[in-house]
Amino acid sequence: MKNYRSYLQIASEIDRVLKAQRLTLRDCVDTYNRKYQDDIANNIKAPLNKDFIQRVRSGKCKVISRRVVDLCVFLQIDPYDQLSEVSAIQELKDIENLIRQYPVLESGLLRLLKDIHRLLEANLEKMPLSGEVV
C-alpha cells in the first residue's frame, strides 16, 4: 500500500493548483459535484463544499480521507509519496534477494536493469528537474 503525502504537502499543492487554474472555491465545488453527480447520487463519492476545500487548502484538515484523495484526483494532484532514495535502495536489495532465492532470474533481471539504465542515461537530459513542471 502506498503512503500518502503529508497533509501540508497536499494542502500546498491544492492551493497552488487552484491559483494556477484560477478556480474559486465555488467553481471547484460546482465543477467537481457536476462531474461526479452520478457517483455522488449513488453514495460512491461524497459531495464537496467550499468549507471542506478551504480546510484542506489551509492545512486544517490533517487526515487524508477518501474525500481528500478524490479532490486530489479531480485536481490532478498525486496524493501519494514518491519513492525516496531509501525506498529505491530497498527495492534494489529486494531484487538482489530474489536473485539469491531464484538464480534462474539473474540473467533476465540483469538485462532488464541494464536496459533501464541505458534508457535513463539516454533520456536524462530530457527529464525535468525535481519539482519542475513539464
Structure, described:
- By secondary structure, the chain is mainly α.
- The protein has two domains: 7-74, no CATH class; 85-126.
- It is 61% helix and 0% strand.
- The chain has seven helices and no strands.
- It has helices at residues 7-20, 25-35, 37-41, 50-57, 66-74, 85-101, 106-123.
- The radius of gyration is 20 Å and the shape is elongated.
Task: List the defining traits of the structure above.
2 domains, 7 helices, disordered C terminus
Short description:
The protein is 61% helix and 0% strand.
Question: Quick one: biggest sheet?
Answer: none
Number of domains: 2
| Total E-strand runs | 0
Oligomerization state of this entry?
Answer: single chain
Order of helices and strands: HHHHHHH
Radius of gyration: 20 Å
Global morphology: elongated
- Pick out the low-confidence regions: 130-134
Structure classification: mainly alpha
Helix content: 55-70%
Strand portion:
under 5%
Strand-helix topology:
Blueprint: H1 7-20, H2 25-35, H3 37-41, H4 50-57, H5 66-74, H6 85-101, H7 106-123
